[in-house]
Design brief:
Distance between the termini: 19 Å
Largest sheet: 4 strands, mixed
Low-confidence stretches: none
Mean pLDDT: 97
Number of strands: 10
Radius of gyration: 16 Å
Strand order of the largest sheet: 1-2-4-3
C-alpha cells in the first residue's frame, strides 16, 4: 500500500504544490525561494525517510511569512491525506535530538485533534532568509492542517541555526516513528475506535 498524497493550493500570496511519500528513502526536490527553509525541509525529508517534492511561488519580496505559513498548511494537509484511515499505525512518536550544543525534543500524537506547544529561545530575528518567528507559524499550520498534537522544545542551545535544524530533524524522526505500522495493531490505536 502506497501512502502518498499530492496537494495543490493557490492564493493571491502563494502557489504551492507538494507531493509526499511517507514510506520513502529521503529523496527531496524542494524550491520555496527561501534557501534556509529549503535546507530545513530537506533535513526533514532525509531524517524522516520521506520522499518530498515541494514547489512554492510566494510573495517573498514582502517577507517569508506567507510562503512558510502556507507551506505548513499544505504539508500538514498532505501528511493527513497520505496517512489515510490510520489503521495499524503506532500513532505516537517522539525524539530527543542533539545537534552540537543544542538538544531538541519533539513528541507527536496523530490523534486528529490539533494542538501545538512550541518553546524555542531563538536569539536573533533571522537565520539565513528565514525569520525565526516563522518556525512557530510553520509548525502551528502543520499541526492544525494534519490534525496533529505536536510538542516541540529546545531544551538548551546557543546557535539559532542549530536550534532550528534540531527542531526540524526531531520533528522528522518523531513523525516517522508515529506513522510506522505495528502488526499487533489491527485497527486504529484508540479506545474511541477512530482517529
Amino acid at each position: 500500500m502506497s501512502r502518498t498524497a499530492v496537494i495543490e493550493r493557490s492564493t493571491k500570496e502563494t502557489k504551492i504544490k507538494v507531493e509526499l511519500e511517507l514510506d520513502g528513502s529521503g529523496e527531496s526536490r524542494i524550491d520555496t525561494g527561501i534557501g534556509f527553509f529549503d535546507h530545513m525541509l530537506d533535513g526533514f525529508t532525509r531524517h524522516g525517510l520521506f520522499d518530498l517534492t515541494a514547489a512554492c511561488q510566494g510573495d517573498i519580496q514582502v517577507d517569508s511569512h506567507h510562503t512558510i505559513e502556507d507551506m505548513g498548511i499544505v504539508l500538514g494537509t498532505v501528511i493527513r491525506e497520505a496517512l489515510g484511515d490510520k489503521k495499524g499505525i503506532v500513532r505516537y512518536g517522539s525524539c530527543m535530538l542533539p545537534m552540537d550544543e543544542t538538544l531538541a525534543m519533539c513528541a507527536i500524537d496523530l490523534s486528529g485533534r490539533p494542538y501545538l506547544v512550541f518553546d524555542a529561545p531563538f536569539r536573533g530575528q533571522m537565520v539565513g532568509g528565514m525569520d525565526t518567528q516563522m518556525a512557530h507559524e510553520f509548525f502551528y499550520a502543520i499541526s492544525y492542517a494534519a490534525g496533529m498534537n505536536l510538542h516541540l522544545k529546545v531544551l538548551y542551545g546557543e546557535n539559532d541555526h542549530h536550534m532550528m535544524e534540531a527542531l526540524f530533524k526531531a520533528f522528522a524522526k518523531a513523525l516517522d516513528a508515529a506513522t510506522r505500522f505495528d502488526p499487533r495493531i489491527t485497527d486504529v490505536l484508540s479506545t474511541k475506535g477512530a482517529l
